[in-house]
C-alpha cells in the first residue's frame, strides 16, 4: 500500500524485488544493479555513463554498493543521476548482499573505510604532489642539460637514459593518482592535470587509461572483464585458461614454456610495442581528438629536444630504449602482485575479497580464512 501524501494523494507503491529476479538482468541489453538496497535499471544509462559502459555493466545483476562508493568520491553529486534510474528496492526478507557473500566481512570493511575517511587518509597533499611533479620536470631538464653540456658520448647517453627512464616511470605512478581523482577535491582539476601528465609527459591517453584501469579495479583478474588479463593469446594466465586452451587446441605459442619466455616478451615489449600501438589506435578509432592533441604535444616536445642531438632515426631508437627499460620497471612493480593472485572466471565475490593485495598480507591470513577471503584486520595492518 502506498503512503498518504501531503495533499491526500497516494504515493506510488515501491516495487520490491528478489535477488533471483535481479540476477536475471545481467546481459548487455538488460542490466539492473543494486546500491544500498535500491534497485536501478541502467540498461539505457550505460551508454551515457561517463566511466564507460563496461565498468558499470560488469556489476549487472549484483550489489554494486562498494564499487559505487570507491569510484565516485563526490557521492552527493552522482546521486542525482541515480534518481531517474530507480525502479524499486530489495524485498525486506532479502539480504543486502547477493550470492551468500560474507556479510560480516563487508560490514567490517565499510567500518574500516569510514575510519580511514575520518582520519583523512584519503586526502591528497597538494604540496607532496607538487614536489612529485616538480622532480619529474627536473629530471627532464637534467636529461637535456647532460646532452647539451657533455655531448652525446656513451656515458652521457647512458646517464640521460637513466634520467628519462626514471622520469617516465615516476610520471606513470603520478598519473595513476590523478586518474583516480585522488589529489584534488574537484574532479575537473584532477582530469586536467591527469591529461597533462599522461598526455604531455608520457604521450599516452587519459581516456584509454581510464577505460582499462577502471575495469581492472572493478573486476580484478576476471577473464573478459579485466583488460589486464586479456593478453591477446600471448600469455595464458591462471589455472583455468591453460586448460581451456588445451581443450580447444589453441596453439598460438608454446604455452607450456611460458614461465620461461615471459621475461623475454612481457617486460621488454609491453610499453614500447603493445601499449604504444594500442593507445594510438584507440585514440584514432574513438576520434578522441583532445587526448590525441595532448599525445602529439609530447612527441613534438620530445623530437624538438632530441633530434638536434641524435637525428630523427637516432631519436626514435633513443625513445624506444627508454621505453624498453621503463617497461621492465613497470612490469616488475605491477605484475608481481597481480598475476600471482587467482585469475579465473567470474565468481561474484565481494568487493574486498576480489582486490589484489600484497603477498605479505595474503600469506599471513588466519588458517580458518578461506582462499580469496581477505581479512579486514590484515588490510588494516597493510594501511
TrEMBL record:
Key word Lipid metabolism present: yes
GO cellular component: membrane
Pfam families, per the entry: Cyt-b5, FA_desaturase
Signal sequence annotation: none
Entry keywords, A to Z: Fatty acid biosynthesis, Fatty acid metabolism, Lipid biosynthesis, Lipid metabolism, Membrane, Oxidoreductase, Transmembrane, Transmembrane helix
Keyword NAD carried by entry: no
Single GO molecular function: oxidoreductase activity, acting on paired donors, with oxidation of a pair of donors resulting in the reduction of molecular oxygen to two molecules of water
CDD domains: Delta6-FADS-like (cd03506)
One example of a Gene Ontology biological process annotation: unsaturated fatty acid biosynthetic process
Pathway assigned in UniProt: Lipid metabolism; polyunsaturated fatty acid biosynthesis
Domain Cytochrome b5 heme-binding: 14-91
Predominant subcellular localization, coarse grouping: membrane
Bilayer disposition of the protein: Multi-pass membrane protein
Highest taxon listed in the record's lineage: Eukaryota
InterPro entries for the chain: Cyt_B5-like_heme/steroid-bd, Cyt_B5-like_heme/steroid_sf, FA_desaturase_dom, Fatty_acid_desaturase
Localisation: Membrane
Membrane-traversing stretches: 120-139, 145-164, 261-280, 300-319
Family: Belongs to the fatty acid desaturase type 1 family.
Record's protein name: Acyl-CoA 6-desaturase isoform X2
Organism of derivation: Microcaecilia unicolor
Amino acid at each position: 500500500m502506498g503512503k498518504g501524501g501531503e495533499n491526500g494523494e497516494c504515493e506510488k507503491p515501491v516495487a520490491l524485488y528478489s535477488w533471483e529476479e535481479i540476477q536475471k538482468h545481467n546481459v548487455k541489453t538488460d542490466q539492473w544493479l543494486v546500491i544500498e538496497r535500491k534497485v536501478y535499471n541502467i540498461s539505457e544509462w550505460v551508454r551515457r555513463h561517463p566511466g564507460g559502459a563496461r565498468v558499470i555493466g560488469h556489476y549487472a545483476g549484483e550489489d554494486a554498493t562498494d564499487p559505487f562508493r570507491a569510484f565516485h568520491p563526490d557521492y552527493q553529486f552522482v546521486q542525482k543521476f541515480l534518481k531517474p534510474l530507480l525502479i524499486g528496492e530489495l524485498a525486506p526478507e532479502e539480504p543486502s548482499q547477493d550470492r551468500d557473500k560474507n556479510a560480516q566481512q563487508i560490514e567490517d570493511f565499510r567500518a574500516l573505510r569510514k575510519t580511514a575517511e575520518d582520519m583523512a587518509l584519503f586526502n591528497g597533499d597538494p604540496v607532496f604532489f607538487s614536489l612529485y611533479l616538480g622532480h619529474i620536470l627536473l629530471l627532464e631538464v637534467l636529461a637535456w642539460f647532460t646532452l647539451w653540456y657533455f655531448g652525446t658520448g656513451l656515458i652521457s647517453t647512458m646517464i640521460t637514459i637513466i634520467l628519462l627512464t626514471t622520469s617516465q616511470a615516476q610520471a606513470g605512478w603520478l598519473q595513476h593518482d590523478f586518474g583516480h581523482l585522488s589529489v584534488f577535491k574537484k574532479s575537473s582539476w584532477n582530469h586536467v592535470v591527469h591529461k597533462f601528465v599522461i598526455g604531455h609527459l608520457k604521450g599516452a591517453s587519459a581516456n584509454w587509461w581510464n577505460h582499462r584501469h577502471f575495469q581492472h579495479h572493478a573486476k580484478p583478474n576476471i577473464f573478459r572483464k579485466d583488460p589486464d588479463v586479456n593478453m591477446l593469446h600471448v600469455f595464458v594466465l591462471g589455472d583455468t585458461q591453460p586448460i581451456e586452451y588445451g581443450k580447444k587446441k589453441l596453439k598460438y605459442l608454446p604455452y607450456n614454456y611460458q614461465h620461461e619466455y615471459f621475461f623475454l616478451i612481457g617486460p621488454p615489449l609491453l610499453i614500447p610495442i603493445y601499449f604504444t600501438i594500442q593507445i594510438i589506435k584507440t585514440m584514432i578509432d574513438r576520434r578522441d581528438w583532445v587526448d590525441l592533441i595532448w599525445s602529439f604535444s609530447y612527441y613534438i616536445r620530445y623530437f624538438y629536444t632530441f633530434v638536434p642531438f641524435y637525428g630523427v632515426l637516432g631519436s626514435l631508437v633513443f625513445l624506444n630504449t627508454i621505453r624498453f627499460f621503463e617497461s621492465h620497471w613497470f612490469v616488475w612493480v605491477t605484475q608481481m602482485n597481480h598475476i600471482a593472485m587467482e585469475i579465473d572466471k567470474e565468481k561474484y565475490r565481494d568487493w574486498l575479497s576480489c582486490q589484489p593485495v600484497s603477498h605479505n598480507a595474503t600469506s599471513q591470513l588466519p588458517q580458518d580464512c578461506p582462499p580469496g577471503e581477505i581479512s579486514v584486520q590484515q588490510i588494516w595492518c597493510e594501511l
